[in-house]
Amino acid sequence: MPRLRWILFWAMVALFFAVFSTAMIRERRRVAELSQAVSLKEEELRKLSDDLERSRQKLEFYGTDKGKARLARDQFNLVFPGERIYRLSVESDDILPESGR
């Protein structure tokens, strides 16, 4: 009978270590996956924070008189009173070769 007890004891110990080691391996994999997911989210958060900061800077700039003037010039082609507008036109007598179809 003592021999059977030792066999059962060691079988239970082996079963415990098998279950415990399997659980540990699964948890380590899960921790690695979650760490990678957190890293990706942190990178995304950093990019979004940078975009937000750039947008705030643009908003602050276009709130000034200089920013409004630049916006008017770039988007609406407006000029200050007294400024001259020069129109450049390029005329070329070059004939482009026709492509063979």
Secondary structure: elements and pairs:
Layout lengths: L1 H61 L2 H12 L25
Description:
The protein is mostly helical and 101 residues long. The protein has one domain (2-76). It has helices at residues 2-62, 65-76. The protein is elongated.
Please estimate the helix content. Answer: over 70%
Q: Topology as H/E string? A: HH
Terminus-to-terminus distance: 98 Å
Strand content: under 5%
Taking all Cα atoms into account, the compactness measure Rg is 37 Å
Relevant terms:
transmembrane, Septum formation initiator, 0% strand, membrane, elongated, transmembrane helix, mainly alpha, 101 residues, coiled coil
In short:
Keywords: Coiled coil, Membrane, Transmembrane, Transmembrane helix. Helix content is 72%, strand content 0%. By secondary structure, it is mainly α.
